[in-house]
Design goal:
Elements (H helix, E strand, L loop, with lengths): L1 H37 L4 E2 L23 H29 L14 H13 L4 E6 L10 E2 L3 E8 L2 H5 L4 H27 L4 E3 L9 H7 L4 E2 L5 E2 L7 E8 L15 H8 L1 H5 L5 E8 L4 E5 L1 H11 L4 H12 L30
Antiparallel strand pairs: 1-3, 2-4, 4-8, 5-8, 6-7, 9-10
Helix pairs in contact: 1-2, 2-5
The structure holds iron/sulfur cluster (2 copies).
């Protein structure tokens, strides 16, 4: 009896893993169909744009390093979260399809409009908000966005679980923020559409643009050697996404108070030393027409991540370093002003969890 129960558990777990793969494939299919349908009206990538690593994690390749009982408990715990992430990712395409005639233009919006928008965004748990035009070189190869401007949004990942990376808790925190930020971006796009502003919500899980570089261009921070955005508020502890919109005029980029952090990185380099997979290019390599400086070798990072279902070691180390150095400030965006264009286009060429 005990043996049959064990077999059932193993089969159920494998079924769950295969479901996750199937769900992710469904999202990629939806994205492809959406881009195909709207291609003539989209802002598309350049031939030199970076290629996005497609998000399928082959769960069957994961190595267990825990007793099966713990594995099963964690899978059962995390599956509803994962299902919610996939549900909201699917919903972004449904909301994006509700923009009506793409050849028309949204009515001009005012500064009070954006102030109201930011209040609503904060109420939905969004911690960072910035604005920028969408550079085509930040759009992944053969992907596109509907409109020329972007609202960049960030949400904090809590320090406690991240400080315990690599762990199940850290991975779960990442997934929680994917879900919460995914829900927020949908609500905010609906809010904009209801006011006559066309908006395409992009889900934080995946996405068609390089989020850290978009955030840097919006003045929200600067990518570190690990390619993750480092903000004044949270260091590397946030997840990012965008809403593509044709709203005009958008507020100017924020003053980037982390514009000089790369000088600190050159002395620090702790994330490179801590990476358990040896996944850093050191020195970094230039790709995509020499426009994107890439520090992470995804062919080493992803397998490590997949094998242990989590990593975030570079993120944890960096959060600690920046905290201890006293370089961070609490709270949400305080200042607004013209951004110093730092010309920085370092970044991870993916948006996946680390
Ligand atoms: S750990 Fe140090 S070197 Fe790495 S990104 Fe953070 S500050 Fe820069
Ligand atoms: S997530 Fe882990 S494996 Fe990947 S670069 Fe960071 S420390 Fe290395």
């Amino acid at each position: 009896m005990e043996k049959r129960s064990g077999i059932r558990r193993v089969l159920s777990e494998w079924g769950a893993r295969l479901s996750l793969e199937r769900w992710e494939r469904q999202i990629l299919d939806l994205e492809s169909r959406f881009i195909e349908k709207h291609r003539p009206r989209m802002r598309l990538s350049l031939p030199s744009s970076p290629v996005r690593q497609e998000g399928i994690i082959r769960y069957r390749d994961m190595a267990g390093w825990k007793p099966m009982r713990d594995e099963w408990r964690e899978m059962r715990d995390i599956m509803p979260l994962y299902r919610e992430v996939i549900r909201s990712a699917r919903a972004t395409f449904e909301i994006s399809a509700k923009n009506g005639d793409l050849s028309a233009h949204s009515a001009p919006v005012s500064t009070p409009f954006w102030q109201e928008f930011e209040g609503v965004a904060n109420a939905h748990g969004v911690d960072l908000i910035g604005y920028t035009a969408v550079p085509r070189e930040f759009i992944f190869k053969e992907k596109g966005v509907l409109f020329e401007n972007a609202i960049v949004l960030g949400m904090e990942m809590e320090a406690g679980p991240i400080s315990r990376a690599p762990s199940y808790e850290a991975g779960k925190e990442t997934l929680r923020v994917y879900q919460d930020l995914g829900d927020a971006v949908i609500e905010l796009a609906i809010w904009l559409q209801e006011r006559g502003v066309r908006a395409q919500p992009v889900h934080p899980y995946g996405g068609t643009t390089l989020f850290p570089l978009m955030a840097a261009k919006a003045g929200l921070g600067t990518p570190g050697l690990h390619g993750l955005l480092m903000s004044k508020q949270f260091g590397p502890r946030q997840r990012l996404t965008i809403i593509s919109t044709d709203a005009q005029p958008i507020p100017p980029p924020r003053e980037n108070s982390m514009a000089d952090i790369r000088d600190f990185c050159e002395v620090c380099r702790q994330c490179i030393r801590a990476c358990p997979a040896g996944a850093f290019h050191d020195p970094p390599i230039k790709q995509h027409g020499n426009k994107i400086v890439t520090h992470i070798d995804n062919t080493k990072c992803y397998p490590y991540f997949a094998r242990f279902k989590s990593c975030s070691v570079c993120l944890k180390i960096c959060a600690r370093v920046l905290e201890e150095s006293g370089m961070l400030a609490g709270g949400v965006n305080e200042s607004r002003g013209s951004q110093t264009e730092d010309g920085n286009n370092h970044g991870r060429d993916d948006n996946k969890a680390v």
